[in-house]
Amino acid sequence: MKKIVGDTGLPSKVPEVTLTFWIIKIAATTLGETAGDTVTMTMHLGYLIGTAIFATLLVALVAGQVVAKRFHPALYWLTIIASTTAGTTMADFADRSLGIGYAGGSLLLLSCVLASLAAWYATTGSVSVETVANPVAEIFYWVTITFSQTLGTALGDWAADGGLGFGGGAIVFAAALAVLVFLYFWTNISRVVLFWLAFILTRPLGATLGDFFDKPVAEGGLAFSRPLASAVLAAFILLCIVLLPQRAGRHSRSTN
Predict the structure, then answer these.
(1) Where are the transmembrane segments (predicted)?
(2) What's the rounded Cα separation, in Å, for the pair 166 and 173?
(3) Closest Cα to residue 237, out of 48, 33, 29, 4?
(4) Among residues 180, 202, 207, 201, which one has the least CA distance to residue 191?
(5) Alpha helices for the chain (secondary structure H)
(6) Taking the model in full, what pTM does it have?
(7) Hey, is 8 helix, strand or coil?
(8) pLDDT in tens, 32-70
(9) Long-range contacts for 213-219 (Cβ within 8 Å, ≥24 apart)?
(10) What is the pLDDT of residues 191-243, one digit of tens each?
């Protein structure tokens, strides 16, 4: 059996995957959409500058995660928010500014996610989040997270602009997540596979919800203020971090 590099028996530096995790994750992906659009559209900075801002912030926060000695909920979720916001601006830049399109962008980003997971497994012997406790696993984790967030943005935009609309897209992705919940509780499908599928699908759910809140009524949205929606979501996430218990995931020596 291939040695698992992260298998130290020490606490992971990412949270245990519980209902609280998924609640904050969906809120964070929605915030990523509204915050990204606030910078690129409301503030008129454009996709390239927005990507530069959030990518720089993401790199700094990932560095903080890597040097941290233990799991810090606030630092972790700030990094997730930075990754999902950077994913929003990067996907929009690729799809719209570079003209790759939603289908091409989604296929390219799916290839990036799969390549990152394959390289991670080849290097450490596992892609389970329970093994994220050393710099090698952490770098692979955050690279995969960022690609998956960007892929999710492209999928959400593709679904919404492809005829489903923002509300319809949200319903489709919520239904897909419900299927994954069923598979989790009533099948023996790999929990690692289900985790990454759910992680990817929560992003287009957040993207369509965010667009539904802040896009003009004429485009099928509710026309809420992007900065206000972002502030409300950020306050909700902060309350969740403060009030809902979270702890670091722990390694399982049988994780593969």
Answers:
(1) 45-68, 100-122, 164-186, 193-212, 224-244
(2) 11
(3) 29
(4) 180
(5) 19-37, 46-67, 73-92, 101-124, 135-159, 165-186, 191-214, 226-243
(6) 0.89
(7) coil
(8) 989 999 999 899 999 999 999 999 999 999 999 999 988
(9) 213/30, 213/34, 214/34, 214/37, 215/166
(10) 999 999 999 999 999 888 888 888 788 777 887 889 999 999 999 999 999 99
